Amino acid sequence: MKDIVGTWRLVKGTSTAEDGTVMPPPYGGEKAMGRVTLNADGRMIAVLCDGRVTIPDGERREYTSYCGEYTFDGQQLITKCDSASEPSRVNTDQIRDVSFDGDIMILRPPVRVIDGVAQQRLLRWEKIADV
């Protein structure tokens, strides 16, 4: 089982609609910013945002953060969320399927409706520090 303890930097995000349509990449695409820190004590924090300097008219700056105790069984990362930028996430389990492409950790959250479209996102993370 890969060791996920450490600090990870978001390197790329993709999004696909349920019908297979490729959606715009999340969090501003190439300018996406994100960090996830998972410590050995079983606590984690995730922060992601659209890192573009300006946002085109009609778009919104995407941002999310949450934290809590986590477990990892080698295939799923489950965070018992105790604080979040979206109040609806508090006191829920945030479940992410986990896979690896070499040293890149790929997190796949459940399908979620974003701007009226059911989307499957894949977020790719590079480890930048041990904690």
Describe this structure in words.
By secondary structure, the protein is an all-beta fold. Helix content is 0%, strand content 58%. The protein contains no helices and 10 strands. An 8-stranded antiparallel barrel has the order 1-3-4-5-6-7-8-10. 18% of the residues are buried.
Q: What are the defining features of this structure?
A:
about 130 residues; mainly beta; single chain; 8-stranded antiparallel barrel
Approximate strand percentage: over 45%
Oligomer: single chain
* Overall helicity: under 10%
Mean pLDDT: 96
Q: If helices are DSSP runs of H or I spanning 4 or more residues, what is the number of helices?
A: 0
Rg of Cα set? 14 Å
Lateral arrangement of strands in the main beta sheet? 1-3-4-5-6-7-8-10
Biggest sheet, in brief?
8 strands, antiparallel, barrel
Structural class: mainly beta
Catalogue the unreliable spans.
none
Order of helices and strands: EEEEEEEEEE
Distance between the termini: 18 Å
The gross shape turns out to be globular
Number of strands: 10
